[in-house]
Amino acid sequence: MEYSHRYHAYPTQEVAERLDYHIDVHRQAYNYARYEYTHIDADNIGSAYKHHYRLPGWKDEFPVFSEVNSKALQRTVTRFYQNLSNLSDKKQNGNTVGMLKWKSPTEYQSMTYSQSGFKLKNTSGRTATIWLSKIGDIPIRYHRSIPDNADIKEVTLKKETTGEWYVTFGLEVEDTTLPEKPAVDDVDVEDCVGLDLGIQNYIYTSDGNSVDWLDLSDEYERLRREQRNLSRKEHGSNNWEKQRRGVAKIKRRIKRRVEDFQHKLTTWLVQEYDFVAVEDLDVKPMLESSQSAKNKQDAAWSRFLELLEYKADLHGTHVKKVEPAGTTKECAVCGVETAKPIWVREHSCPACGHTEDRDLNAAKNILFRGLKQLGAGCSESTPVQT
After folding, report:
1. Contact (Cβ atoms closer than 8 angstroms) between residue 73 and residue 140
2. pTM as predicted
3. Strand, helix or coil at 262?
4. How far is CA 338 from the centre of its chain?
């Protein structure tokens, strides 16, 4: 299993200048890989593995490429081919795509050390040090320890739009060292939960709990005010750059609050329950067509589902995504479907007379579908009967 830990880095001014220089060299390597891909016979390159054999020739022709770590340089070439593969996948899915563009200095603000060229030191306290080949030592805020059963496979340095530096460790854990998930036959329905990703509440659980939306109204009002001030500055001036960083810091605060909220919520779910069933939402068309797209974007449901799945593996919890269609219409007691407009927030079944909150009814149906999908001794009975 692969996942990552991210830490705030505090390089000195001298090291920060060196980092900026190295990142710019990697940007030029990325652009040169793009140039060779479009101007050289594809049989000689065509893949990151083949393109790596051209790097010694690069260093002979352009000595600047010898100033950066060789493994990091290979990772930059691999990054180009990963972007190329992502572009190809989008094209196969029917999207209209163009060519990969050249990276400008503002668009390329990170580099990755893969396999070697780095070392984590002094991890006994709240601070630690990451040593990078040809750069030196960089202090980091070591707010959480890397697990003993995890191996560091790569290290990524990134400069945010606010000017701050962050280090991300790509970790790999052997599946045999992870907590075992309970056997399907041992899963107790009392330790299972269904999640309805709601409109009035962020989530509504099948056992009647609800989690309200995160209130970001003050942050967004401040963001609008600062963006208006930014639009009045002369683009590229010192005042414009100062204001741009202020806007970036507000966006960073919003992002951090949402991520903190999601991390705490998903951790609680995987620690509280042995099985979690959740809607398998296709968020992209929802953002393109819905009048409430802004609210759905703030919800960041795609990231929420990703966090839930990877934390479930870390804590030994089953997670199943189920088909969301019809979960709101279907009665959790008798299964009869009843259409209702979105502003009707109560489910009332005309067949059996069952009445309860609309989101609670949907969460019970999601749990029932998840149990069937898991095969946890679930019969054809409804969630309430179960």
Report:
1. no
2. 0.78
3. helix
4. 36
